[in-house]
Amino acid sequence: MFGLTGQLARRSLRNEMRAKMKWGNVRIAVIGSGGVGGYFGARLASGGADVVFLARGAHLAALRSQGITVVGGPEPLHVGSVQATDDPSSMGVADLVLIAVKLWDTDAILERIRPVVGSKTAIISFQNGVLKDTCLRAHYDAARIMGGVGYVATTIDRPGVIRQTGPMQRLILGEFDGRISARGQAFLKACLDGGINAELSSDINREIWQKFVFLVGLSGTTTTMRVPIGPIRGNGQTREFLLDVMKEVVAVGRAHGVDLPEDYAEIRLALADEVSPDMTSSMHHDLQRGNPLEVRWLSGGVVELGARVGVPTPLNGAIADILALHAAGAKATAAAGPKISDATE
Q1: Domain 207-332, CATH 2.40.50.140 — does that match?
Q2: Stretch 92-98: mean pLDDT, rounded?
């Protein structure tokens, strides 16, 4: 009996060693090389990970000719030579696929990247919201999918250059069943080697919802009111609106079984008091630039998820309604608008 126990222990150790060896040199496909994907992809590449970027247009040309640069933050960075393409079929099979495209592109891109996804490939999304992982599961087996949360304030400054507009950068990752996996540990090491403030979570679903609470409040208020967070938190009426928007998200999350304290909206309001008064949301930036908006998955996602569990969400519904005409972007709005001829009295 003792001999059999020893054999099983040695076999378990060999399997663990094989898993570590398999994940030792991680090949990472960064799908979407804008502010989030470009920033974290650059950090991963600088730490020695085998990174290949999916990009397009002038940004792709710059990545190929001059590499990728991060400016504006506390730790500027330049990686002079990176792998980049606009064709997923040329990327090769990856160990880890990092999804960082805008939410409205998710379904289309998940179909395009099938050549990148092998039998052991893990897929992790650092997109906004909580519906992102539902979308991933609709295209790929749930066992492939890890949970991820990203915190960073960035934008594409010019082709090949990512501008960091705030000091914080952080990634949280984990398996949805709470276990600490070999692939999670390998990705964590790649992040730490690249100078990313990263950590593994045993409750990644809660982490995703914690970000969702603040993100919905920030995006919904800054975009509908067309101002950064400072004036919103400084006015009594708009401050209360921000708090109530976040309270709806907390109520929906708790109804879905997420371990959020009842007063979590108040906790996130305290966070709103700590950030720079000039802080705004990517959705506000998209509105200013005439881009499509992620409102369908943010405030609209709260409405959808609330309806499933019978939790009313009138304020998030109002935000979704107010932004409906802008949701598809300025070009689509203009094309869909009525043709008005000169009027005479």
Answers
A1: no
A2: 97
